[in-house]
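Hey, I was hoping to borrow your eyes for a little while. I've been puzzling over a protein and I'd love to understand its fold better. The fold is given in discrete form, as structure tokens running alongside the sequence. I'd be grateful if you could look everything over and explain what you see. No rush at all, and the record is pasted right below.
>
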Amino acid sequence: MTINQDPQPDISAVGFFQKKGMLRMNLQQYHRHLKNRIIVISSALIFILAGWITKSYVIFGIGFVMINIYGYYLMFKDKKNARSRGTRIPERSFFIVGVLMGAAGVWAGMIHFHHKTAHLSFRIGIPVLLLINIITATFCFNFRLSG
């Protein structure tokens, strides 16, 4: 006894998104996000390191403000995408920015947009990273300026 079975439709997520033309768009957006993240973070870190090496609080401050504005923007963009069910920003992006002296911007974005506040890793992790950022900046400048 043989049963006629129709071929199973492709119900995988990739097959669905490929048919709808959405996977390509999401990958393009993700790659654009990665490219922008690399540009902003590297330029901010150049300012931060240049300010530390030259003992200039102004140059250091420019890099610090740049990376914190970027962290705030990431929270805004992810909240906007969450509401419209768009492409989300990976959570590791927030933590990468937080580790690289941008925790203040990420935390400000969390509070202002009420985004990611239910996640324990964000409620505890970002303030801890902010404290580490403050300690690191204070230690580096005190060590560098006294030398």
Summary: Residues 52 and 141 are 7 Å apart (CA to CA). Helices lie at 13-20, 22-53, 57-83, 91-113, 120-146.
